[in-house]
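Handout, section B. The chain below has 123 residues.
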Amino acid sequence: MELYKKEEYYTIIGLCMEIHRILGGGLSEVIYKDALEIELKAKRIPYEREKLYRVNYKGVVLPHFYYADFVVYDEIILEIKAIRNVLNEHLSQTINYMKLADSQIGIIANFNIKSLEHKRIIL
């Protein structure tokens, strides 16, 4: 069975690996986000950074909202982390963003450890 958005997924992970190779682990999330934005622009990959998603509850838009770190290729929710371990709460957060964005694919990229850690989420 062919992976959904396989080429796009590998392109994103390749960029993250390049960033991790150059910067290493242990920096703050915003540094990795800034570097990723440079890479996405250089490769002319469509993206939105810190995309706002509003939550609708029973027809009422709630006053608080979510920001997804990146939406890449108009569909892939990309969450950048610089943490010790990716936990279930991070998976849940990404799944919630995916639902709000009506997206079938999400990626969590964790830069904090010796090797880039990444998780692919499919709904």
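Note. Residues 81 and 110 are 5 Å apart (CA to CA). Compare this with the example in section A.
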